[in-house]
Structure prediction request, 281 residues.
Amino acid sequence: MNKLVLVASALCMMSYFTACGGGKKTESAPVVEETVEAETPEYVLLDLPTVDLSSFPKDADGWITIFDGKTFTGWRGYNKTTVPGKWIIEDGAIRFSGTGGGEAQEDDGGDLIFAHKLKNFEFEFEWKVAKGSNSGVFFHIQEVEGQPSYISAPEYQVLDNDNHPDAKLGEGGNRKSASLYDMLPAKPQNAKPFGQWNKGKILCYKGTVVHYQNDAAVVEYHLWTQQWKELLDKSKFSKDKWPLAYELLLNCGGANREGFVGFQDHGDDVWFRNIKVKILD
Prediction:
């Protein structure tokens, strides 16, 4: 825990009496300023079960299938040890069964993560949404006690651009699908309408991140750089608006620069399938 900057008070010296301010003649010593590190919010990182990636099938090109279309092997809820009940498997896809009540509003909801930390990787998936639905894909997630997953993780936005109001918020389309949420817009914006499958990919290699949508590279940015800091400074996660999120995102991935990937419960119907990862270390 860092401490607030301290300002030392002036000290009083005297010539005739021992009490400060007393006597016939007093002198004040110069003001001494002592500076230590600025305060950062307290938080607790959880240490919950993980899985061994080597136990999942790998093809000749190095792609590892982390969802078999039938079971939640390797998956669990964010900050949980089980899969929340609102996440189900339907027709070979992971589906969040939404209620429209907003993000993580119910006890059997919450975000879903794959329980293995990734560092340098390509992460592929397909997604579709119902009319007016909102979700997201996160990476470098740290499990922070009592906090949502997006407090520590960059977000690849998943959205019905035509019918969800978030598409008109932010700046320059930076809340539309495949965008770096609230920071950089996906260009070109080539998402298919609700009810149709889109192909997504996140490439993360030594801090360089690229978002792909339907086989086109649509966003590129660089973690842990001045550019990254400036993006955060202008976002809803800025230091003055959300100090803890700013601290975690500025150093996203923590000391080891790695974390979990996961899908967002935003209270809306969303589907994910054909989920696989390639390790680039």
Summary: The chain has two domains: 1-39, 53-279. The longest helix spans residues 226-233. The helical segments are 226-233, 243-250.
